[in-house]
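Cytochrome P450 oxidoreductase
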Amino acid sequence: MCEIDQKLPRAVEVACPVDSLEQTLTCTIACIQEIFRINPAFTMTLTRKVTAQREMTIDGHFVPSGTTIFSSNHVMHHDPAIWGPTHDVYDPDRFLGPNAESCKRNLAPFSMVHRMCIGRNMAMINILKVVTTVLKCSKLESTNPKEKMRTVSVGNSEKEGPLVVRVRRRNLTGKPGA
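Structure:
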């Protein structure tokens, strides 16, 4: 919140240009990246068929031509070999610390390489605009801090609910009672 309050203009004044938000709001971006990692919106596996030219050995296992393989970003985003023993803990600092570049390379909320979502940049800009606008103008509070979300299906990461949040308008004028 402090980063958004300090680096963005007051919401009642002007619209904020989006061209430099990612460089300006590094902590906010780290929070969004960690949300993408710990609870991806899209978890459907993407399949590939191994061709004769691409036979390979993965982790000591030979993968012959014709084999269908798939990857899951949810599995990758919770792999202790990549994320360490705290892989199930929300920790945005992993995207700000000394291993930040490695974390960013292993984050695939929009898939990877030629199967990457073509709308990823537009999605990221819109996510950033919505998150910063909501947090700039509102205070969000869980009505039950012990309540946890749980994924109940793969594909679009359907969540078991409800997760009830109280939204309060923030005082943006600095005047009491305004």
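Helices lie at 2-7, 21-24, 26-38, 73-77, 80-83, 100-105, 120-137.
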